[in-house]
Design goal:
45% of the residues lie in helices and 15% in strands. The chain is an alpha/beta fold. The strands form two sheets. Strands 1, 2, 3, 4, 10, 11 and 12 form a seven-stranded mixed beta sheet that branches. Strands 7-6-8-5-9 form a five-stranded mixed beta sheet, with helices on one face. Helix 6 crosses helix 7.
């Protein structure tokens, strides 16, 4: 009987040991599985966060941001078609407010304490750079498509990355009426305009009003030096230089014969040629003063992700090709690679721009000097 009882106790003890062993193995397996799942979830979360950060860095978003009101873009009075283009590409609405350079910057200044705009896209890179100095603009951000910028355009991006160039056009090519002058008598360089034979015949747009006209004046004064630059323009003023508010008025003066030579923004110049006006365009060999169209984002916008998408969109080669082909200002040098310029634009055209910081620093003084000279 004791043997049976002993045997039974032995069996029970073995069963107990076996049960404990099985239970321990199961618990360890469950714990390992839970740890593996936790590690997997942690890695997935980290990857998602990294992906989100990368998306935000290039102006896109892993989750499509919601829009409660149109993106408000302040723009020079051209290429308002960009709103429809962006809407078609992304589904987001854009409201464009157009105006000349002075009007647009005045509007921004008036709204300083309560800015209404989200993005500014304008031919005034010096004005825009000045805006960045008081924290008005998003800085230190680089859109994905900035990788496509040409070497020339890369050189125009400020150190603080407050704006990105979307193209540069000639602020002033030399143009002349070919029923007044011919190839032997027409000006070949900007310096030729001071020749007395062009007295009372030269015109240009006002640097204080027309967005491209300040870059024109700034580049000349930057290359010559402020004192020599003022001397150059003083000579022109003494010989009857005519300053018109904007380039369309320069076109009218050329068409009517009021003037026969001008420093004219290139789209206006080519449009005159294309329409059959007796106008010849001369690209100076040492380069024509360039006006750069730039896009910048309001630092306080409540549509930051959509604003970033818009600027990135402007740097897309397809977008710039469409603007070349169908835009109001199709004559320009695109800022990104892979875009073909207008077929009749001089393939050897060279552009020069004043240093961004220099042009921004001297903008008020140069504009004031021109205003004083124009009323004398």
């Amino acid at each position: 009987m004791k043997k049976v009882l002993a045997l039974g106790l032995s069996v029970c003890m073995m069963a107990s040991v076996t049960a404990c062993s099985t239970s321990g193995t199961s618990a360890e397996s469950t714990t390992a599985s839970a740890q593996a799942q936790e590690t997997k979830e942690t890695n997935t979360a980290a990857e998602a966060a990294e992906s989100s950060e990368e998306a935000q860095a290039d102006g896109s978003s892993a989750e499509k941001p919601e829009q409660t009101e149109p993106l408000l873009v302040y723009l020079n009075d051209f290429d308002a078609v960009i709103g429809d283009m962006f809407k078609e590409a992304t589904g987001y609405d854009v409201e464009v407010v157009v105006g000349n350079g002075a009007e647009t910057m005045s509007r921004i200044e008036a709204e300083k304490s309560n800015p209404q705009w989200d993005v500014v896209w304008i031919d005034s890179m010096y004005d825009i750079y000045n805006l960045s100095q008081d924290g008005s603009l998003l800085t230190d951000w680089e859109p994905e498509n900035a990788a496509n910028l040409t070497e020339f355009s890369k050189s125009l991006v400020p150190e603080n990355k407050c704006f990105y160039p979307t193209g540069t056009h000639a602020a002033g090519v030399l143009v002349y009426r070919n029923d007044v002058y011919d190839d032997t008598t027409a000006p070949k360089t900007i310096d030729d305009l001071t020749d007395p034979r062009f007295t009372d015949q030269v015109g240009m747009a006002d640097p204080g009003v027309a967005a491209p006209a300040y870059p024109l004046a700034a580049e000349i004064m930057y290359e010559k030096g402020m004192e020599a630059g003022q001397e150059y323009f003083s000579t022109l003023f003494s010989q009857g230089l005519k300053v018109y508010p904007k380039n369309p008025q320069v076109v009218q003066a050329l068409a009517s014969g009021e003037i026969s030579v001008a420093l004219l923004q290139e789209s206006n110049a080519y449009e005159m040629v294309n329409s059959g006006e007796p106008i010849t365009i001369v690209w100076p060999e040492d380069g024509a003063p360039g006006s750069t169209r730039v896009a910048a984002i309001n630092a306080s916008t409540d549509q930051m992700e959509i604003a970033k998408m818009f600027v990135n969109f402007l740097l897309d080669p397809e977008t710039q090709q469409t603007l070349v082909n169908t835009g109001d200002e199709g004559y320009f040098e695109p800022s990104v690679e892979g875009v073909e310029m207008k077929a009749n634009r001089d393939p050897n055209a060279k552009l020069e721009t004043a240093d961004v910081a220099w042009g921004a620093e001297h903008e008020a003084d140069i504009k004031a000097w021109f205003a004083d000279m124009s009323v004398q």
